[in-house]
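Bench log, entry 3. Co-assembly request; chain sequences pasted below exactly as received.
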Amino acid sequence: MKTEALIDALARDAGPVRVLPPALWRVWGWLLIALSFAAAMVWAIGPRDDLADRLAEARFLFEQGAALATAIVGALAALKLTMPDAARVWRWLPAIPGAAWLGTLGLGCLRDWAQMGPAGLRITPDPECFVYIALIGSLPLLALILMLRKGAPLRPSWTLALAALAAAAIGSFALRLFHTQDAALMVLVWQVGAVALIAAIAALCGRSVLRWPGVAT
Amino acid sequence: MSPATEGAPNSGRSDSRHAALDSLMRAAQQGDRRAYHALLEEVALRMRRLVTARAPWLGQADVEDIVQDVLLSLHMARATWDPARPFMPWIAAIARNRLTDHARRYKRKQAFDAAASDLAEVFSTTPGQTHAEGVVNLISVRRAMSDLSPGERRAFEMVRLREMSLADAAERDNTTVGAIKVAVHRASRKLKRAINRDGEEGK
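Structure output for the full assembly:
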């Protein structure tokens, strides 16, 4: 096709477009969907019996707050990366709440060790964490992908990895509300590990999920 | 003719062009097809010049592939442009991204990256610029190239873009090394002036 013909075709096809709202607004919309789905799942599976006690604990609240912050900043960064004139620093910003999340769990490991000795740091298999996190993160991830596809796929692997990080962090956040597992090392290995694994898999799929039209792709 | 298309490219001086592109894109987002057509033509023209300057060894069909991909990408992403912000950094980011995609297909990518960064360094007087600004500068350079005399342009392309030696360039042009040197020097001075002028416009 000649370039002139393409220009004619694109101009003919172009009606008015609705400019995308700022990423910060869109991320709240996503959060509403993600948390509603997570709440429905927690309700369906049944919250843990000691939830009221846990909610009174500062440590639990810090860990949950950091997981939620990772989800929000991850989703915001993913949306920002699809805006061509956004600052490049966005891709690294989720590292801040992510580090806080790892930090709270790392401190938790130390405390478990101080309180219980080596028994506090035992790792036993808990693969269902991955299944639950993937299940609860699935709809939030799908919703976020639909939002991301309205943007520009400038950095597809990063974008999808951050989106999956956000969705899986929501999964992990919800999991703590029904899964009776509070040993920090177990949470770190099985839950944060599942989140990282899901983000890594998503990074590999980035180019096939988010792509430009045209001949180079 | 709508107000947006009045300031259409090719009619005004270069200093009004950045603002003209902004208003064309704004009108295009509101559904003005004529403004959109003019904008796409202007972007195609700039991209064609930039790509030819960056990769003089590319065939015409390959150059048009890149130009068309940038246009398709602009089309796909047009809802992501915030009309309150300038158009140039936005389109430069898209163009840079598509150029990178295409560069993967060619073996001479590295040689070409080197030439591109050399150009940005030679002609930019703005310290700490981003790569996207470099692309904008390259677009300015390409535009400024059309102001050079044919001899100056040829000498500049041979020595600075294709990295030929002064002696080879002189032989190719059937002239002396001194004459090539003078022509390259004059061309560099004119281009630097053009970059400074465009840089100040952007402020």
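Residues 1-15, 114-133, 199-203 of chain B have pLDDT under 50 and may be disordered. Residues 10-107 of chain B form a domain with the Rna Polymerase Sigma Factor; Chain: A fold (CATH 1.10.1740.10).
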